[in-house]
Amino acid sequence: MITLKGEHIYLRALEPEDLEFIYEIENNEDIWEISNTQTPYSKYLIKQYLENAHKDIFEVKQLRLVISSYTNEALGMIDLFDFDFKNSRAGIGVLVKDSINRKKGFGKEALQLLINYSFKHLNLHQLYCNISEDNQASIKLFTSQGFNEIGLKKDWIFTNGNFKNEYLFQLIKK
């Protein structure tokens, strides 16, 4: 049995009821830099996205899951993106939506669950992530799970009138 259940949270597929939750995340300008978003999303577009969320990772090259508490509160999202079957790799990103739920280990537990799933069930060889140089919380999170900094992309992100560097981190299956 595939388990995406941890001690404090579990990962679940997207549901139509997640429309408002995803709408709030996708339209929060404070996180657009992280998600590489430049324009707002309509509820109509998100509804269409949810209608297709059942499609297989091999078809759409992405897997987006909700980080949920055992009281069924949606806490955040965790994604595999740029899924590359031939080269056995994918990008990974995690977001805990509300600051009140951050620094409680939910993101760490979600990341551990998805790393295990990626290596054991998708048989990936490696995962990678891109983190802005000033996002110390994410750098700490990913390095705590064995990701290594392998490169620096200079002036990679243009935000608030300035360019910022972005680190590339990688985790190779042992």
From TrEMBL:
N-acetyltransferase domain sequence ranges: 9-170
MF (Gene Ontology): acyltransferase activity, transferring groups other than amino-acyl groups
Record InterPro entries: Acyl_CoA_acyltransferase (IPR016181), GNAT_dom (IPR000182)
Family matches, as PANTHER family: GNAT-FAMILY ACETYLTRANSFERASE, SPERMIDINE N(1)-ACETYLTRANSFERASE
Name of the protein in its database record: Acetyltransferase
Pfam families associated with the record: Acetyltransf_3
PROSITE patterns, per database record: GNAT
